[in-house]
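Quick start: load a record and inspect it. Here is Basic leucine zipper 34-like:
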Amino acid sequence: MHFKFLLLLNPYIIFISAQAEVVAAYPKIRDADAQNSLLRAENGSMKEKLSVLSGEIMLKEAKYHELKKEKGALKQLSLMHLSPAFAESSQPNHYGYPPVNNMAMDQPGFNQFVGAVAPPPMMQNQNTENEFGFDVNFGDNYNPM
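Running the structure step on this input writes:
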C-alpha cells in the first residue's frame, strides 16, 4: 500500500517542482521580454535613420553627378576659350589694316561730353536706304544716324 501512495504522490511532486522552476524562471523571462522590446524599438529607429540617410546619400550623389557634368562643360568651355584657334578666330577682322586702338580726341566731330557727332553735311551718305535695304527717309522724322 505504501507503493500505491508513492505512485499517487509522484505526479504531485513533479507538478510542484515544475511550478517552482516556472516561478524561478519568470523574472528571467520578464527581463528578456523587456530587453527584446527595447531592441525592437531600437531596430525600428535604426531602420528609420537608415532610410533617411539613404535618401540623403541619393540626393548628394545626384548633386555630385550634376556638378561633375557642369564641371566637364565648364572645362570644355574654358579649353575652347584658351585654345589658339579660338583666340585667332575671336580677334576682329581688320581686313589687312592695323587695328585702331585709340581715337584722337581732337578730331572734328568728336565731343567729349556727347561722344561722336554727325559728320559735316557734305560727307553724309546720300543713299536713302540703310544697309538692310529699308528706306530711312520718313518725312519730317528723318534722322541719318
